[in-house]
Amino acid sequence: MGNPLRIESVAQINNERGQKTLHPLVSVLDQSLSKPVKEARYISDVYMIFLKDEKCSEMKYGRNHYDYEEGTLLFIAPGQVFGFEESENMIQPTGWGLFFHPDLIRGTHLGKCINEYSFFSYDVNEALHVSDAEREIVLECFNKIRYELAHPIDKHSRTLIVSNIEMFLNYSVRFYDRQFLTREHVHKNVLTGFEGLLNDYFQSEKLQTLGLPSVSYCAAQLNLSPKYFGDLVKKETGKSALEYIHLKLIDAAKEQILDLSKSVSEVAYRLGFKYPSHFTRFFKQQVGHSPNEYRNSMN
After folding, report:
1. Model-level pTM?
2. Pairing state of beta strands 41-44 and 5-7?
3. What is the tens place of the pLDDT at every residue in 27-36?
4. DSSP designation for 3
5. What b/e string do you get for 78-113 counting C-beta neighbours within 10 Å, with b at 16 or more?
6. How far apart are CA 63 and CA 48, in angstroms?
7. CA–CA distance from 123 to each of 1, 81, 187, 240 (Å)?
8. Which of 57, 88, 139, 156 is the most exposed place for a label (fewest CB within 10 A)?
9. Is the Cβ–Cβ distance between 263 and 291 less than 8 Å?
10. Do 252 and 202 touch, CB atoms closer than 8 A?
């Protein structure tokens, strides 16, 4: 497998699709007007957002395959690998695309908070599925950007374009919140899997050999991206995934501390701490008492 083809600019995207470049740093394309593009793997230097109106070819994004459904939004940040299995085939793009270079938002409010839109780091199986009403809002935002692109560039252009991109991203946050709620039964299964994963991990020798499981490790075991997994746990429990892991660790610590046959140092080593002092400090931060104080109070 060769290296992915690099997308360096908005103009390159437009040129490859046979569409006019109205602004060097941003573009909104009706993909039905695009010419076919090469079926290949790509890595982009620009932000890319695709709205698919119909099912199309299976796409690879990172390590996973994804078969688009109708009304799907996919967010790709600079540095991410995406595309199709390499071949000599040409494919016809469909739906809509919003593309913007990081230089467009540099120094703006959006530029400072773009990393807070965690869905740019979600995997393809965590894409946003929009309703018909939500799709209309997306297209309204895209059309406002297109209106500005059709307008001669003046001192207001950048502000208005960036504001409309930010509005679209904020709507996407709302839509994802709705998706978290409407797919609650799926997410309950994820939380059940998370709980079981931690129980198995803590009951094995992994704490002693590998240390505390990270959020990334747990997400990978559940076939989710760390960002999506963290957002899901926060929505469902009100706690971050790391806080949830720490709570499970404290539960295990309390159980073992009440076993008087074990010293606090033994408990610390069993729970994966290299130094008992680190365990004592962590326990006191979480519980409000040192391990010995907790042991004495319970006995």
Report:
1. 0.64
2. parallel
3. 999 999 999 8
4. P
5. eebebbbeeeeeeeebbbbbbbbbeebbeebebeee
6. 18
7. 21, 11, 15, 19
8. 88
9. no
10. yes
What is the distance, to the nearest Å, from the Cα of residue 259 to the centroid of all Cα atoms in its chain?
41
Helix axes 291-298, 241-257, angle to 10 degrees: 60
pLDDT digits (tens, 9 = 90+) for 163-205: 999 999 999 999 988 887 766 555 667 788 888 889 889 888 8
Upper half-sphere CA count for residue 30 (Cβ side, 13 Å): 5
Give me the pLDDT at residue 19, please.
Answer: 95
CA 129 to chain centre: 15
Residue 52 exposed, middle or buried by CB count within 10 Å (0-12, 13-18, 19+) = buried
Query: Cβ of 55: how many Cβ atoms within 10 Å?
Result: 12
Query: H/E element holding 99?
Result: strand 96-100
Query: Which residues have a Cβ under 8 Å from the Cβ of 238 and sit 6 or more positions away?
Result: none
Task: State the Cα–Cα distance between residues 2 and 17, nearest whole angstrom.
Answer: 23
